[in-house]
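Write out this protein's structure.
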Amino acid sequence: MHQLSSLDAQFLDAETSTTCTHVGILSVLGPTTPGGGLTVQALRALADGRLHLVGPLRWRLQQVPLGLDRPYWVDSEFLDLGYHIREVTLTGPGTDEQLAEQISGLAARPLSRDRPLWQCYLVNGLTGGRQAIYTKVHPAVIDGLTAAQALAVLMDTTPQPRTVPHRFSDEQYQAAGALGMLGNSAWHLALLPARLMWSSLRLAPHLPELADALTVPGADLLGTLARGLTPRTWRRPADEATAGAPAPAPAPPDTPFPGPDTARRRFAFTSLPLGEVDAVRTALGCTVDDVVTALCTTVLRRWLIDHDAPPNTTLAAAMPIARRTDAQFAAADHRLSLLPIALPINEADPARRLHKVHTSLTAAPQRFRAAPATLVRDVGAALPRALRGPISRTPLRALTMPTPPVNLIISHAAGPARPLYTAGIEVTGNFPVSAVSDMTGGITIAAMSYGRHLDVGIITCRNLVPDVWDVTGQLHQALSELTACTRNVRYLRPARPPHRPMSR
């Protein structure tokens, strides 16, 4: 028996009629010779011989009676690849815009809870004899930054597919009996008072700070009460800022993209030359994470200006970082943490904007270690599952959601440096397809390096950011702007950043 972790269960609870939390990868293949393309039958045969390498893709959920506790993982006796691997065909002419529109619709569909939480689509009919594979998986199974690594198991580093020994994973979980699950639930309920007490003690010193960060109605009153009720000896020292502690992450300001108001999505993708990104990184003494975040900051600034929303403050963003070791990548459980960062969209100068991004990302790990958002998740995890569902449908969901309230999510992962092949066909691009939610704004920007380019996927709520292709076009302009800065000697190089546990 393997029970879902509290964070994985929260990602399941976070799904609503307008929010799906699954993530995915869009892999573009080809071009291929006429008649030499990939068939859905060949893709199913390839998956059938390799899915045993990623055990969680065989697992399905088993709910606890009456919803008293977190679900369990159970091995599927039969994996219906006809359901999990499908094909769609674009009507002519098969442009990238049509491909993205198809992915928008597929990304908006929730995954069935009665089957293993993943699906794969072979997309035919692209221009130039190309094809695409879109795979989506729930983060309760494999977190977003590890999904690309797991899916790469189905690919090869040479045109000749490798031979994979067919053996099942050692981790196989049998169906749990109702009495056994109820017994475990009773034990967890017996421990509930102690867990709530421990979580409350950890959260108490941060109550004033947490209340100030919330944007729900009544947050100001909550902050006043928290400061009055929290014992002085529990509070953080008043001179902590002078002792070198980082400033708290900004509360998310009002923007035109507060969160998805419908389940309809828009997706767009593009590739940036990785050589130019590395040149900016080297010339200005920063990291690839800094450059990617600065590019996102620039396009958001321009988008807000174009939509008559003056960028007069910073945006509150979060960046996922992986905490999964190589030995854990084929195991279930969400192993991501979120770094809170500030995006200086109010800075007009591109080089100073990059420097401020660098400063924010450098301070983020230290701020994250003391961030109340991680403690809030502990409190949410301590609540019985039967209570978390109703709470997640009220304004108090901010206290139990797996992510803090932010304007958007920005992610960057280091992908394979060598070309990949599927059934002998070269993969020319790997574009992340992330998710948007009520708590993380109506736009998410995800980037992953692959070969000599940086592949970027942007997903939005269609009603809030319908012009997502304009945003991808501005990424190229933003990179050209930073490249020009490297040739201007009046810009000072930022201090060399300390080592951070980031992707590059």
